[in-house]
Design a protein that fits this description.
This protein is α/β, with parallel strands linked by helices. Helix content is 37%, strand content 16%. The chain is globular.
Length: 294
């Protein structure tokens, strides 16, 4: 079934250079369609900001000349900082845990890494967990940050394959400064002519999954309005359509804040795939709304 058959309102504008080599698995990962999101960005801007970094899919696809990537989640930011400053260490973290999984029972090894992370959250364990957890759906309990996703049915990629991805991503993010910041602090550094891409936890599906930061959509929209008034460009990915168009995720957006709205086809729901344990996904395609202030 074609994209237009599922979501007739989706446009044809797609960037000519997709970048589909995923580094991290993460809930809401935009890797497969980041090139389409990027195709709507302005042709020129000063600095690029991504204050909800996650998997960094849009950042990696864009390869900006000067950028700031941030997230409130410390272990995640440390992965990105290590990728930038010491890619060999990132490879070693993955290789050590992958070797442990090969030398013993797969689930037992995964649970050992998960237990290590939950005792003391750290980037090395998180890196392997997000590559090997079930469905790539990394879940954390909001009250204590406990990572609860079970082991995936797939075998994690080999250290050689992961190493190749690290080298590729290392080259693409050399112009990025990575920082652990709450999105409210990150927005304060945005200047006139800057470009901001926001991919916050989704209102309809993700509050129970990504408890790493306290999030208010109302406050985010107020912050976007301030940045827009200061002359910055802001793009926001947010809930759109679910159940192959049968359900609209109703979110109140202030009138006049965004000048354009497009729908981006995301394919089968990552979360629904996890919940249905491999059953058919024919009726569970989703489309995100991409809201643009220009």
């Amino acid at each position: 079934m074609s994209v237009q058959a599922i979501f007739p309102e989706i446009g044809e504008s797609v960037c000519a250079l997709p970048f589909k080599t995923q580094l991290l698995k993460w809930i809401g990962n935009k890797q497969r369609f980041a090139h389409e999101i990027v195709s709507y960005f302005p042709e020129s801007y000063r600095n690029y900001h991504e204050p909800f970094l996650g998997s960094g899919a849009v950042l990696g696809t864009l390869m900006p000349k000067r950028a700031f990537g941030s997230d409130i989640f410390g272990p995640l930011v440390e992965i990105w900082q290590t990728l930038h400053d010491a890619p060999g260490l990132l490879k070693r973290w993955y290789r050590e845990r992958w070797n442990m999984m090969q030398s013993t029972d797969k689930v037992e090894a995964y649970e050992a890494v998960k237990a290590s992370y939950n005792v003391s959250p750290n980037p090395a364990d998180l890196l392997f967990l997000c590559r090997s957890c079930y469905g790539g759906v990394v879940r954390f309990r909001k009250q204590d940050g406990y990572m609860s996703t079970p082991c995936g049915v797939h075998n994690p990629i080999s250290p050689k394959s992961f190493s190749q991805r690290v080298d590729l991503w290392h080259d693409r993010i050399q112009n990025v400064t990575f920082r652990q910041l709450d999105y409210r602090e990150a927005f304060k550094e945005v200047k006139k002519g800057d470009m901001i891409y926001c991919d916050p936890p989704y209102f309809d599906t993700q509050p129970i999954l990504y408890g790493a930061q306290s999030f208010s959509l109302e406050y985010l929209l107020e912050t976007i309005a301030r940045c827009k008034s200061q002359g910055a460009y802001v793009a926001l990915s947010i809930d759109g359509k679910k159940n192959s168009g049968d359900k609209n995720c109703e979110i109140t957006i202030p009138a006049g804040l965004f000048h354009r709205e497009v729908y981006v086809n995301c394919g089968p729901s990552m979360l629904k795939r996890f919940q249905m344990e491999g059953k058919t996904m024919e009726f569970h395609h989703v489309a995100d709304r991409l809201l643009l202030t220009w």
